[in-house]
Amino acid sequence: MYTIMRLRSVCLILACVFVLSASAQIGERRSQLSIGVNGGVALSTIDFDPTIKQYQHIGPTIGVSLRYTCEKYFSTVCALQAELNYTQLGWKENILNAHGEKLKDTYKRDLGYLQLPLLCRLAWGKEQGGVMFFILLGPQLGYYISGTSKQSSTWTFNENGVPDRPNNVYQQYSMKPDRKLDYGLTGGLGLEVNTKHGQHIMLDGRYYYGLNDMYDNGKADVFSRSAHMTISVRATYLFDVFNR
Questions:
Q1: What is the C-alpha R_g of the chain?
Q2: How far apart are CA 65 and CA 67, in angstroms?
Q3: Strand stretches in the chain, DSSP E
Q4: b/e for 174-183, b at 16 or more Cβ within 10 A?
Q5: DSSP 8-state assignment for residue 224
Q6: Measured between alpha carbons, how far is 62 from 233 in angstroms, rounded to an integer?
Q7: C-alpha closest to that of 177 among 209, 208, 222, 118
Q8: pLDDT for 132-191, tens place per residue?
């Protein structure tokens, strides 16, 4: 049932992107292709079930961006935006023992992903020599490429010789991702400064909700959910290849 709900969510967002793009075809035609680079920071956690208490994992995100502006519908400038980014995701544990007491143990897992957001972009403001406000919405694909972990020299065990943790959940320390493919939905908003010479400087914030679990989630598996949840802030620089 949960898988069906996730697939329905993906279909819904794709339908929204299609409807917004299609509705724009009765507006003022634009043909502007812009390319450039982006970079920023990603604050991520893993939505584990059973729950693992975490801090925000902080990692870099950097990549290339491509945007095609196709229409202006009334005051709304419509565009499609694609990116190819490297992002360091993961989790950083806030470790307690089985009695809920804070331990000196520390653990951090870094997970490197290639990510491909495919976004519908709606913007309002001055297209040249001014400022625009915009929103972004669309699906995102990711692929796991590497991972590292770091733990403290202090490591507390219980009487059974396993890490002393709430709900007796400690298996994640030795588990590598079962599923390299990640997918979900992302959305955000930002500001753009445009020059009269075809340059664009943007700052945006986004939230990503993962729909695919990193670990297998069958009845015999450790976790029933293990999906990425990410807040990112990034700056982007684009320049026009052509603008008709």
A1: 21
A2: 7
A3: 28-49, 54-55, 57-73, 76-93, 107-125, 130-151, 181-194, 199-210, 225-243
A4: eeebeeeebb
A5: S
A6: 11
A7: 222
A8: 999 999 999 999 999 999 999 999 999 999 999 998 999 999 999 999 999 999 999 999
Task: Check: CB of residue 92 under 8 Å from CB of residue 105.
Answer: no
| Strand bridging mode 54-55 / 107-125 | unpaired
User: Cβ of 237: how many Cβ atoms within 10 Å?
Assistant: 15
Angstrom distance (rounded) from CA 19 to CA 28: 17
Q: Which amino acid is at 155?
A: W
What amino acid is encoded at 7 in this protein? Answer: L
Q: How many CB atoms lie within 10 A of CB 93?
A: 20
Express as a percent the part of the chain with pLDDT over 70.
89
Phi, psi for residue 223 in degrees, rounded to 5 = -115, 135
Strand, helix or coil for residue 18: helix
Which residue type does 209 have? Y
Contacts of 7 (CB under 8 A, 6+ apart): none
The predicted pLDDT at position 27 comes to 72
| pLDDT band, residue 12 (cuts 50/70/90) | low
CA 108 to CA 190: how far, in whole Å? 30
